Amino acid sequence: MFETLKEQPADKILSLMTAYRADPRDRKIDLGVGVYKDASGNTPVMRAVKKAEQRLVDRQETKAYVGLAGDPAFSDAMIDLVLKDSVPRERIAAIATPGGTGAVRQALELIRLAAPRARVWLSNPTWPNHPSIVKFLGMPMTEYRYFDSSTGLIDFDGMLADLGKVAEGDVVLLHGCCHNPTGANLTREQLAETISCLQARKAIPMVDIAYQGFGDGLDADAYATRKIASSFDNVLIAASCSKNFGVYRERTGLLMAIARDAAETKVTQGNLNFLNRQNYSFPPDHGARVVTEILTDPELRADWEAELEEVRTTMLDLRKQLAEELRRQTNSDRFDFVADHRGMFSRLGVPTDVVDRLREEHGVYMVGDSRMNIAGLNKDTVPQLAAAIAAVMQGR
Ligand code: LMR
Q1: SS3 for 118?
Q2: pLDDT tens digit string along 220-252?
Q3: Residue 385 included in any domain
Q4: What is the CATH number of the domain that holds 153?
């Protein structure tokens, strides 16, 4: 049977991780996979996570199954973190999922169950796993313009023109904050216009929020998600705890599905539970329990928020330093946008051959579309990166 299998295309982000590890050069720089790294290149376990895990070890007396939706306390704590009181609780169905990717996958499966012909609209560009999963599920898919690589800015006119073609019931996937891969986010005015456009088209928004707390702060980063959640009858929201709690390998995420009323929530919840059961029965629990412990304990929460804030400001400082260094070393302001972007990523906007040369000649690993993980830098490697970019870009 397996003789019929064909090679699958390598994941662009994950294959870069392998190539970086195999590179023997000392001065290599990893700007690939979206994992936070401190100044020494480590991805530490956050202090509050360590403490919460210790408490669980001391206190937990069973590893028996929880429930198909996961621990209700986790849903409540995450709904509060992401949505606050923007939507009445009785309108929110939720399931714990294996990471944010699990939430994206289950959201798409719910859409397919509810509206098999719905088309999914994805920003161009978006996280490569979005189109990959949509395609794998056999759902119709279209891109809408989002980013102009030549300016490093959002192509908002193009975006609105494309979203103006969305059909009733189509699903439009938006990034909650810290757009991956560009780092370019809608302003509040642009968001309001986008919402009006989608309301007029009778579209269903789906939000992927994987970097809450990495951009402008926990509440500011949830602004768009809350606004969208409170503006439509039905919304799907995939939230990840991988980055903001640093629990990447624990696979911790939550899918929220906003329904019109309590009766619709009940049926939606049943369908979400069903989808969990079909795909993996019970969602992973350890990371979810750690997150719940942190969010519901004032002391742990304060410590987590403080550490997250350090992570956020470190990345902001690196952005500023990189923009300045690039301005100095390339003698141009073409990369100034790096300082204005938010979150882990910025897209440099250079062609693939430049990305290849950066890797081959300078040991700089960024994704092929020139996405850089800003957290892969430290204050010593910023000038090194800027010098490499300046050298490769000379005369272009
Ligand atoms: C990324 O975009 O690098 C992260 O979300 C990790 C991944 O799974 O691709």
Answers
A1: coil
A2: 999 999 999 999 999 999 999 999 999 999 999
A3: yes
A4: 3.40.640.10
